[in-house]
Amino acid sequence: MDLIQFFGRFHVLVLHLPIGILLMAAVLELNCLFFKKQRSNTLNTIWLWGLLSAAAAAVLGYMLSLSGGYSDEAVWIHKMFAFAVIACALICWILFSNFSQKNLPATLVTALCTCQLFLLFSTGHYGANMTHGSTYLFDYAPNPIRSLAGLEPHAKPRAAVSKLEDADVYLDVVQPILQKRCVACHNSDKSKGKLDLSHYDLVLKGGQSGNTIVPGDAQASELFVRISLDSHDKKFMPAGGKPPLSDTQIASIAWWIKQGAPASGLLSEFNLADKDKQVLARTLGLQKGKDAWPLDDISPLPQAIATELTQAGFIVKQISHDVQYIDLDYSVARRALSKQAMQALLKAKDYVVWLNLANSQVSDVQVAQLSQLTNLIKLRLEKNPISSNALTGLSQLPHLSYLNLYQTQVDDGALAILSQFKSLKQLYLAESNVSATALQNWLETQAKQHINVIAALPSNSPANSPANLPFNLPFKERESL
Amino acid sequence: MMNRRQFLRNTAGGLSAAALSQVPNFAMAKDLSGLASNGILGAPHKPAKAKRVIYLFQSGGPSQLETFDYKPLLNKMQGQELPAEVRGDQVLTGMSAQQSSLPLAGSIYNFNQHGESGAWVSELLPHTAKIVDDLCFVKSMHTDQINHDPAITFLQTGFPIAGRPSMGAWLNYALGTDNPNLPGFIVMVSKNSGGQPLYSRLWGNGFLPSIHQGVQFRGGKEPVLYLNNPKGLDLSIRKDLMQHLRKLNEAEYAKWHDEEIKSRIAQYEMAERMQSSVPDVTDFSDEPDWVFDLYGPDSRNPGTYAANCLLARRLAERNVKFIQLYHQGWDQHDNLPGGIKNQCEKTDQASAALVTDLKQRGLLDDTLVVWGGEFGRTNYSQGKLTESNYGRDHHPGCFTMWMAGGGVKPGMSYGESDDFGYNVTKDPVHVHDFQATLLHLMGVEHEKLTFKYQGRRFRLTDVHGKIIKDILA
After folding, report:
1. Residue A341: which CATH number?
2. Which range is the signal sequence, renumbered to this chain (chain B) (predicted)?
3. If you measure CA to CA, which chain B residue comes closest to A313?
């Protein structure tokens, strides 16, 4: 029996010979016929060897089928086609080697050869179905071809969710995470740890350890425990040095388990705490993460502009590998902001998010021009002779959250303008001409804004004796968020 | 004739230059500034929270028990033996292992809570106590090393044996310079503070190109020597000389393709630019009186810790990426009460002033300030414990550091030690975790910053290091 199996497994090797040889014979035969070429007698030998190899493959195939493991039906149809191939090859060999083509009707030759090809492919196809599965061939076929083959069209990906409330707790939140990070190793074909995470029922059924999901208790659920371990831990998942799931993804799964691991249900049906809402919104891609870059993607800064900026005295830095916006620093040039530098700066206006113009004798007119830098987030203007009026233009910058006016000439008039800023979070006014009382009043009226103002008393103030400066700053800071 | 080594060097050099120019970030690093100013990474991996670091290294191992880690139980159990179950399997140094008794010693100095965060700070640090709401204390630091040199080397380079690059060198190698006129890594050691020796390899470049090594400013009136042109040599002659020297070096590079020759050229050019940039940064005459008052009277005396703190702020204003201060003398094996008081007096006001000063100038937003030593000290007395005097031995099991600014949460304490101040009981932070976090704040992923040397890739954090997510703002 073992020996039979040993030989039987050579079937998968030998079967390629009749495919090749008979294919060649049939095609060459047709070729001679249609192009009226001299038929070589070598073709007879080719037919014979095709016939013999087909017979050999059939014998080995029979041996293989004895080992079992294949459905009888599938073996039967493969076997029948194989016999047909051998029969057809036998007829061809006898006919073609005993009668020259001229004596045979062209239709007969054509029919026999076509039939041989058809039988060959069919046998191969049914054989392959047994090893790869019957859907293998059309798994990735485009929908029109699938429908021709009588298969269902591909499942459509779920439409992207646009509102948190419309999302399905499993299909939109949990399943995409599992699909993306787990299913490659935990599916029906390759179920590591006997765990298959491709369908809800199977997820709940669990794997080897049994308690994969304990509805209501994340800490007792093996799946949650494994993904939240230290990534150096032996039992950490995803295994094999793959990057851990993001904090948001882990929190989403924990939330789902705590809710009892439901199979479906819209998020609107759940009682969501603000924190859960945030986590879920991030998982669904409806909200950017805490550390995500706040602006839309931008193409890289053109080289010519970068060069121009560098020549003008700027230090040019890209924010990060993925964020193509730039960080510009003119302060280290330690010279006045030149006309040339200003021109270069305005050419890069869409790219600049962080800008340091400290100590560069920046004028009010130049500050006004900065209002064209609409993506500006951080602006350092300290130690420049600028006055309150210069700030008017900046108030329209939608993203400006950090503004440094340390040691500038801005006075109480600046406060009214600063009230109009849209996104300001950090404001530095120490050693400017803003008076303590005006600032105090302003801070009180601004109570609803989340601005963190840092301002020591101006150094020329009489109250500014070394003893109470700066540990005793009256409005050193004020945080309301 | 070319020998085998020359051939390999030439072809390898040519090939790698060609290959590197194909890597987008490398091309960017070269082209954007023309000075390779964006480092080997071209740009940070992630947007940086901190653009520079000021590391106030308190060398010798300051006692956590007299500064920030308040342990009243030790006062209650004053003189009693350190329980064996607390000590566990902790190995002691040869200095106290021979003692017949290990008597617990409480802090002789009182503690109070400060600020809205309610952080405990001892009476030795009145200035630091006023800024606790700007600080993030990590009370669960622990290290692998129990002796000074390996412990400092471990903190600075990620490995206890000499030869690896220092953190400042790694960061400059990764990110490049933000100011071509000054070195990106500057080191200052307080003058007149003896103690355990420091070696220049602590700020060395290790196997990285030597252009990234820390440049030490001398403590005193002339922080960098020979900045002035020698007598009888005017500027034009000097420039001429430098130009010819460069040509010679370039010819040498064309022949040998040794990257260290490039470093040499860059260092000469840096030195030339430092002739004007260093006097500018070290001349305090543009600082008003209130600044000196803020940092304390020592700040008028160049080379002291206070003056170095002020200089650190001036360097930060000029975008120096890594500013490393060392203050020695925290190694109180005996006479701790007097010794630590003296140390605190010399450093407390200036450390706090630096944070305050950076904050009001808007610089604390993207400057990370770090305060800490290489390990902690034992909760038992080394030598005789009396009512007014005791000593403490080295203790790697737990110590306290603080950080401020640069993307770290202000006004918080992270991690806890046990009531004996001996073992970490909550949220331990290993030296590699601290290093991973520091790189993260600078926008660098510690697992991705590597350098291949002697056949393997090296990292600051070796194969360890977890970012302390809870302290990130």
Report:
1. 3.80.10.10
2. 1-29
3. B33
Residue among B295, B279, B301 at smallest CA distance from B191 = B301
What does the pLDDT average to over A389-407?
93
Q: What is the per-residue pLDDT across B313-363, written as a single tens digit (0 to 9) for each?
A: 999 999 999 999 999 999 999 999 999 999 999 999 999 999 999 999 999
Quickly count: other Cβ atoms within 10 Å of residue A476's Cβ: 19
Tokens of B343: 């140390």
> What single letter denotes the amino acid at residue B63?
S
Q: Tell me the pLDDT tens digit for each residue of B431-466.
A: 999 999 999 999 999 999 999 999 999 999 999 999
> Is A298 part of any domain?
no
**Residue A234 shares a structural domain with residue A332:** no
CA angle (B412, B118, B299) in 5-degree steps: 80
Q: Considering chain B, what percentage of its residues have pLDDT values greater than 70?
A: 92
The DSSP result for B66-110, as a single string, is TTT---HHHHHTTTSBPPHHHHTTPPPPTTTTT-S--BB---SS-
State whether residue B255 sits within 8 Å of chain A by CB. no
CB contact under 8 A, B28 and A318: yes
CB distance A320–B38 less than 8 Å?
no
Query: Which chain A residues are within 8 Å of B31, Cβ to Cβ?
Result: 303, 306-307
Q: Which of A272-276, A405-409, B413-417, B450-454 has the lowest mean pLDDT?
A: A272-276
Residue closest to B184 by CA, chosen among A317, A351, A304, A359:
A317
Interface membership of B448 toward A (CB under 8 Å): no
| Chain A nearest C-alpha distance from B33 (Å) | 6
Inter-chain residue contact A291 with B288, CB threshold 8 Å: no
Q: Domain limits at A9?
A: 2-148
- Check whether the bond before A244 is cis (ω within 30° of 0): no
What pLDDT band is residue B34 in, cutting at 50, 70 and 90?
A: very low
- pLDDT at A354 (0 to 100): 97
Mutate to test the interface with B, among A248, A320, A330 (most CBs of B within 10 A): A320
List Cα–Cα distances, B355 to A449, B327, B362, in angstroms.
26, 17, 11
What's the number of CA atoms in the CB half-sphere (13 Å) around residue B234?
A: 1
Closest Cα in chain B, distance from residue A140 (Å): 35
- Taking each helix axis as running N to C, give the angle between helix B431-441 and helix B148-157, from 0 to 180 degrees, rounded to the nearest 10: 30
Q: What are phi and psi of B417, to 5 degrees?
A: -105, 170
Residue of A nearest to B177 (CA): A315
Cα nearest neighbour of B292 on chain A: A466
B185-189/A315-318 β-pairing: unpaired
CB spacing of A321 vs B44 below 8 angstroms: yes
Question: Which phi and psi (to 5°) does residue A168 adopt?
Answer: -90, 135
Nearest to A466 among B34, B290, B362 (CB): B290
Which residues of chain B make contact with A247, given a CB cutoff of 8 A?
A: 469
Neighbours of B137 (CB within 10 A): 26
The CA distances from residue A240 to A232, A235, B39, B458, in Å, are 10, 10, 31, 21
* Domain shared by A328 and A215, yes or no: no
Minimum distance, in Å, between the CA of residue B362 and any CA atom of chain A: 6
Cβ count within 10 A of residue A304: 9
Domain count, chain A: 3
DSSP string, A144-192: HHHHHTT-PPPPPPPPPP-SGGG-BIIIIIIHHHHHHHTTTTBSSSSBG
**ipTM score for this prediction:** 0.89
When the pLDDT of each residue in chain B is averaged and rounded to a whole number, the result is 91
Chain B: residue nearest A403 by CA? B362
Same domain, yes or no: A310 and A458: yes
- Complete domains list, chain B, with CATH: 50-227+283-471 (3.40.720.10)
Residue B15 has pLDDT above 70, yes or no: no
Task: Nearest by CB to A466, from B293, B357, B466: name it.
Answer: B293
Same domain? A199 vs A238: yes
